[in-house]
Give the backbone structure.
Amino acid sequence: MHDTTLLGRLYGPKGWTGFGIAALALFVLFPLANLVVPEGSAFHVSDYTVTLIGKMLCYAMVAVALDLVWGFGGILSLGHGLFFALGGYALGMYLMRQIGADGQYKVDMPDFMVFLDWKEFPWHWVLSNSFIAQALLVVLVPGLLAFVFGYFAFRSRIKGVYFSIITQALTYAAMLLFFRNETGFGGNNGFTDFKRIFGIPIATPETRMALFVASGAALLGSILLVRWLVTSRYGHVLTAIRDAESRVMFCGYDPLWYKLFAWTLSAVLAGIAGALYVPQVGIINPSEMSPANSIEMVIWVAVGGRGTIVGPVLGAFLVNGAKSVFTVWLPEYWLYVLGLLFVLVTLFMPEGVVGLAKRLRGRARAKPKAAAPGAPAPASPTTERAAAVSAERGVGKPA
């Protein structure tokens, strides 16, 4: 019988088991291995590994957000790097204020403002010393930008490759804007040299682990949220819009608000991921808005398998894990490998890693079981049809 409860609608027993194992690893095993297990032990997890995986957790959250609009809504965005960076800049402003007078110039202003001979903070820095205010901006700035942009784009029925190109242009324009020193965002250097968060030193193992756990919780929460949405009536309508928008309109639904909600929520999730990313890597600059970063996010989803939620998470870890290896040993070849990977996935694995795993599992189940020793071999369909024809014609009947 189909389970109609909320938990049953989200995942089955196997899905919840996997979810529980992931939560156990993120919230118990990794903290113990990093903070409790001695460094000389084979089970110790280094601070570098914690930071690396924490960064990938943020990337995976962006991939889940992108899967909501692309995998389930059919909206290919090449601008999610912008929302990711805006969330990072919003929290980065607070982190810069937390430096206080510990900067190079020993003044209670960011060093780049002192270097530019600014005497006071710009208007958009007025509330930057408040974590609550900046946390609200992490959500509001990407959300409002996505809402306004999406409203006019979807109302004008812009979709497909045209929508993708416009989002890429929007990201590029924002990157050029943030490169300018007069905007008050640090120019090409951006924000860096963070010292504290909540008044606590940011470089301590305990703080890094707290950020790691927060990133893991945000990722798991976003997975449940997106899963709840796509299994609801709203999700069914959104998927129908993806497959046949005209037919949905004939049924009396307005695709504008369904697409706009998914687009805005996706931008907010990407902004939250960016806010969690910045204190772990220690820097945010306009290069995070580059169109290449947004295209790479699309590759994460394509490699893992769009429309699967868990696939983009796997894709983010696989691609960024490979990137970490190649940028150390063969950095000049990474872009070629990334391009080749995207071509191969498009040609041979259009459903990604998750789709490939499902096909292989289906083939394994379809194979007939081996016959027991001494048992007669099963008749082939051709033999059975021949026997039926012979019986109809009276062949083999006794006279």
